[in-house]
Hints:
- By secondary structure, the chain is of the alpha/beta class.
- It is built from eleven helices and nine strands.
- The chain has helices spanning 18-34, 56-66, 84-97, 114-121, 129-141, 166-175, 190-200, 224-242, 262-271, 280-294, 308-326; strands at residues 3-8, 39-42, 71-78, 102-107, 159-163, 179-181, 212-220, 275-278, 298-302.
- Strands 1-2-3-4-5-6-7-9 form an eight-stranded parallel beta barrel, surrounded by eight helices.
- α7 links the parallel β6 (179-181) and β7 (212-220).
- It is globular.
Amino acid sequence: MTALSVLDLMMIGEGKKLAHTLEEAAMLARHVEKHGYRRYWVAEHHDLPGIGSAATTLIIQHLAAATSTLRVGAGGIMLPNHSPLIISEQFATLETLFPGRIDLGVGRAPGSAGPSIRAMRGDASERDFATDVSQLMDYLASNGRQEARGLPGRHDVPVWILGSSLQGADLAAKLGLPYAFASHFAPRFLMQAIAHYRTNFRPSEHLQQPYVIAGVNVIAAETHDEAEYIASSHRHWVNNLHNGVPGPLPPPEDGYMARLSGFELQGLAQAMACTAIGDKREVGAWLREFIATTGVNELMIDARIYAPTARCRSYQLAAESIEDLLD
């Protein structure tokens, strides 16, 4: 059975505050835990209006404390922004607080624009991503390969490589690590990256067989029309970003797509190609086809839905649609 998980950018809705977002995230985490979801990942972003996931490790602690069995982690930590030693210390501590429930996905993108990159890194130039990953894993393992030491003891925090191109797939394959592809917003190279990863995978002490997560957008409701309505928030936010005006997550609007230009519709179609919107039957059919085409081990669902109850219901319907496929 293909596992289901959650990706959360910690969107702040129009008229809401970060406190609302954190409360709604805990509500969703508890809800998906009851419906069989495997993990809940928080994405790191900085200096983007409407996204509150900058202090990623603190949010992970908040969500892990609100649940009991759900795996919680980063999807991901943007490693060029951080010292591998500091990240190892933070996640070793999280693993100590919540044994067997913490994941560490790492990516090479900054998760922000120029001014915030300079604010985080100062005058330091960007380091080599592969070297950073190796150092991070050394610190977590306490294997003595680095001059500095991480927290005492071995800390079994699974490290995932995130990416949206062949670079991440190649590194994950060489290191024998699980791989997560950001097809929920950058689907262009999905099939190429998966094929490259599987073909070149080298078994390691961490993983014996390739393991692939693919990001997808799934917005489900009781009816197709209702799903289209609540999906307008996600589409509106993405379209605003493409137009250079990022902001909070808009409330849903009737007829939103009908007001867009052909150019805007094309941009949305490309960015959100890996998207299922509809009732449970429609979502289930889309998921069945996507899983059959890609053969992924796990789906990481992003659903930027304004109303927290509708978001919880959407994730529940997605899980039920997968169960229906097995009946």
